[in-house]
Design a protein that fits this description.
This protein is mainly alpha-helical and 130 residues long. The chain has helices at 10-21, 26-33, 37-48, 51-74, 93-104, 109-114, 123-129.
Amino acid sequence: MSREFRQWTELEVFKLRKLLNEGKTRKQIAAYLGVPLERVSSRIRHENRTPEHRKEKVARARERRNANKENYKSKTVRSVKHEPVSSYGRPTLEMLAEAQRRAEAPRSLTAEFCGDPAVGYSALDRRQNA
């Protein structure tokens, strides 16, 4: 379920008010606007609030946000010390030489385009040679 937030456009709000004045149900309005029923219900609740009530709601939300910030700030985050990278993680000279041989192996145009391995390097070739 996607909880993507998108603000209402002026045209959507205008259509919502018009449909409400015509006596349409929330379900009909949601179908007409092509939005979820909960989104329509939420906007209708918002439209029915007084400006004072809207300001109070914003203030309460701001207080909750600030309280949560304090909770998050009080937690300490422990940093993890990383070990230095050792040489075993780097390719050896033999590995580099093998990669160079594979890159220089002749391949057809189709094999180059499709990313097929060179002759002798595919899993099927290795299984047949074993």
